[in-house]
Design brief:
It is a single chain. By secondary structure, the chain is mainly alpha-helical. The protein has one domain (13-38, 46-217). 48% of the residues lie in helices and 4% in strands. It contains 14 helices and two strands, in the order ααααααααααααβααβ. It has a two-stranded antiparallel ribbon with strand order 1-2. The protein is globular. Residues 1-10 have low confidence and may be disordered.
């Protein structure tokens, strides 16, 4: 009797990543709930001190005055250092494995696929759903520079700020701090939902200033994907799977936009062509 070869991917990272994403998303919700539920046991600080980017926003104030910006504290620096440590080892893995906003965007993209009539996703080929759309490569390449402009603007405004510049417009405030007290934050939340359903990881690609900070880590982190070009057949399956729309992945394994989801690794058509490498 001939046994069928297992169709499970050689590197079953997808399930592990999804479990980790869900865990960090749940943690973000619990942190947000902790300070809004009644009772003494729920008392505590707000959601802002747990934001890694808050450490960047308040850095200038702390260095020049010894005080952090309003709604931030030293915990922001602890979280930021932890994220930077992960990035030095595994590149932008925080974006692909831990960031609750990144996970929320992925869930919204999957919802958009279902609403637009998607069939079950086939490895290596985008499903025939109308949504989310893929931005033309040339336009996508230019739009990805926007987040560096956002980062520069925030760093500049943080010099004279009393509150973190992103405090009133960060979608995390709506989703995880449950603060919908102003029309502006309602607009941010609705805009975040719509853009995430239209374009997969829209904010990740084009707007997130933390992603801009972490981008350089992909060039130096020891954990990365490696391609054996003697086996690679340039099938394009990795490009089709990439949620960040990176082009020609076999020649761009250290691309600054890579969030280390390794979907391209699992969808590789040729055994031995792609592998996870340390060093």
């Amino acid at each position: 009797m001939i046994k069928r070869k297992s169709r499970e991917p050689k590197y079953p990272l997808s399930k592990t990543r999804k479990w980790m994403q869900s865990s960090f998303l749940l943690l973000a919700f619990l942190i947000g709930l902790r300070h809004i539920l009644p009772g003494r046991s729920s008392r505590g600080g707000g959601f802002d001190p747990f934001c890694p980017f808050g450490g960047i926003e308040t850095l200038w104030s702390y260095l020049t005055t010894g005080e952090t910006l309003q709604t931030t504290n030293l915990l922001n620096f602890t979280v930021l250092i932890s994220v930077l440590g992960v990035s030095l080892i595994a590149g932008r893995a925080f974006c692909g494995w831990m960031c609750p906003l990144g996970t929320t965007q992925e869930y919204l993209a999957r919802l958009a696929e279902r609403i637009s009539g998607s069939k079950r996703k086939i490895r290596g080929k985008r499903s025939p759903a109308l949504l989310p759309i893929r931005v033309p490569p040339k336009v996508d390449a230019w739009l990805k520079y926007l987040k560096y402009g956002v980062l520069a603007l925030i760093l500049f405004t943080s010099i004279t700020a009393l509150y973190p510049p992103l405090h009133s417009i960060c979608p995390a405030r709506a989703f995880f701090a449950f603060d919908l007290s102003t029309p502006l934050i309602w607009s941010v939340m609705i805009g975040f939902i719509i853009t995430s359903m239209l374009v997969e990881r829209f904010s990740c690609k084009y707007l997130c200033p933390l992603g801009a900070v972490l981008a350089i880590s992909n060039k130096i982190s020891p954990i990365h994907m490696a391609i054996d070009h003697t086996h690679c057949v340039a099938c394009g399956r990795g490009d089709a799977e990439c949620p960040m729309d990176i082009q020609d992945i076999p020649h761009n394994t250290r691309h600054s936009e890579c969030i280390r989801c390794f979907e391209c690794l699992e969808t590789c058509a040729k055994p031995g062509a792609a592998s996870l490498r340390v060093g």
